[in-house]
Amino acid sequence: xxxxxxxxxxxxxxxxxxxxxxWSKWQPSPNFERKMFKMEDSTLYLVDSSFDEIxxxxxxxxxxxxxxxxxxxxxEKPISPVMGILALPDYAEIYRLFGKKEAAITDDMNxxxxxxxxxxxxxxxxxxxxxxxxxxKRWGTQTDSQSAWIKEGLxxxxxxxxxxxxxxxxxxxxxxxxxxxxxxxxRQFPDRSNTIQYKIACNQSAYIVKCLSDQYGMDKLKQxxxxxxxxxxxxxxxxxxDFIVKVNSELNKKHPNSIDLDWKRFxxxxxxxxxxxxxxxxxxxxxxxxxxxxxxxxxxxxxxxxVDSTLTIAERNEIRRETNEYIDDCLKIINEKPFNDSxxxxxxxxxxxxxxxLGGRIGGISGLKNSGHLTENTIYSVHGxxxxxxxxxxxxxxxxxxxxxxxxxxxxxxEEALAVYACPESLDCDGHTFEERxxxxxxxxxxxSTSSLFDQEMGEESFxxxxxxxxxxxxxxxxxxxxxxxxxxxxWQSSDIDFNEIYGITFDGMIQKINSELNKKYPEPIDFNWExxxxxxxx
Length: 539
Known about the structure:
- With 539 residues, the protein is of the alpha/beta class.
- The chain folds into four domains: 1-141, Glutaredoxin, CATH 3.40.30; 143-275, no CATH class; 278-405, Glutaredoxin; 406-539, no CATH class.
- The protein is 49% helix and 12% strand.
- It has 23 helices and twelve strands.
- The strands form two sheets. A six-stranded mixed β-sheet has the order 1-2-3-4-6-5, sandwiched between helices.
- A hairpin with a 6-residue loop joins strand 1 and strand 2 (35-40).
- The longest helix has 22 residues, at 195-216.
């Protein structure tokens, strides 16, 4: 869960606990926009302001009743855990705050709990999360991964409404799974990303929990939770597998025929996330990043787009088409096949918007998952203008995913060179080609030295960087068009600079060869727009 939101929750809880003011009445939250809050029995209720006071009071009452019922099911005494309840109206709001496509989320920070959930749904997952809190508070935590089914089973046994969209009971679903050979080993509990297997495991473990508690009492189940699955036989006098065989045998006798269950409906998510909608952008720095607050996001296949909300649907669809075209073009340039890697693409109108988003006035930047602080393959780019660098950043991601990062410090210039070569439009405000620019640099003694290409020390003037970009892009284009992309890939992936071994000539020798050919091709000084070249194309 978002650590900043959790921290704000804890600050609110702490403030309400130590101050003498009466927090039992609903009032605007000082830490969260569009939220009302009150504090009762060490529980902080934080409710979206779209709910009226009657609805807010019903939410607080429901939380109390759920905790009482859960503790009764566990046969435990009442508790008053330090807890925050965040009631949200829809998926858009839960995604904006947490960036997750889930109906409910629980966070535990040093024994203080925060439960966020969607209130306006028939199959509300609130009680499921509250049962998880009750189990942890009364039974403690469990590190045995093979025991996860106990907690999940209890949560779903206590909250059958979460999966009740098919109108069948837990037992009826279990019978169907049994008769159709769909039962799984719940000791290897799947995660939520595997939707159908997770739903099977939840229903299956709920029924096993019911059987164990009904036949042998809740105390033994509690003991099993505390001691782990390795002690199952010691606690119950038989193995877990033997118990499953016994349960299945009894059900086969009780129900000789299969249940007429609609499998397609069972497999559906009762609280489906509205995939077709554009959602408010997840803002990990909630209330402190104005740019993200005005952006919307949507996942389309393996690409996720986060764009300015002022763009029309037609413009967003054009961005999608254009980006896929860029990916195909970049793959074609490096002679690689399509890929299914996910990429999150952030697009803003200007460099000023980029400064609001990232803190720096840049045209674009990209990075791979798990590099730096990135949790996904990510592109940030100015877009919508004539000189958009989006394709430049796409080539970075495509080449990194297909070829990896360059292996030698002397070949890192290739990364920028290839990206610029793929996206000439980001530099074309002077109206010249890479070749024409290179010729002008050559004729006017402006070419960067080999050492400058390798260490990329170009000075602070923006046009110095443009010399580097144009010069290196022309060299890469020359290598691809005259020697093929396979040799470039080999150079890219060389642990040392093996230019001579790969191309049969030294790098300096190749530059001399290029310069000699261009001097013959252009014997007269080229008519060049130097002032236009020095301009910054990306607004």
